[in-house]
Specification:
This protein is α/β, with parallel strands linked by helices. It is 17% helix and 41% strand.
Length: 112
């Protein structure tokens, strides 16, 4: 569950930038479900149990994708980049971006 102050903007980021589909939305409850292929994310607005000012998650969300280079080409000019496409010694080609809330998203595919 990713927390967001702006549910609509988060849905828009994940659907327009990353190709997710919004499968469920309750603005009254401040909740949405997003899916792309076999990946499902839920996003939620702050509530009395879990207030939210900004992401405090210190890790990253890592997505294994079929073609990191193609995704990089689509995203590099329209998102905030953490690090650009790079080939790593452990056999992965990957890059990292931030979503509209500041969560760190990494994408990688095996080097061929």
């Amino acid at each position: 569950m990713l927390r967001t102050k702006d549910l609509r903007a988060t849905i828009q980021f994940y659907t327009t930038r990353l190709g997710f589909q919004c499968e469920g939305l309750s603005e009254a409850d401040g909740w949405a479900s997003l899916r792309r292929d076999s990946v499902e994310l839920m996003v939620a607005a702050p509530n009395s149990h879990m207030p939210f000012d900004a992401p405090v998650f210190t890790g990253s969300f890592y997505f294994n994708v079929d073609d990191a280079a193609a995704l990089w080409a689509d995203l590099k000019d329209v998102v905030k980049v953490c690090y650009p496409m790079e080939d790593f010694f452990y056999g992965m080609r990957e890059f990292a971006i931030y979503d509209n809330n500041g969560y760190l998203l990494q994408f990688g595919s095996p080097l061929r």
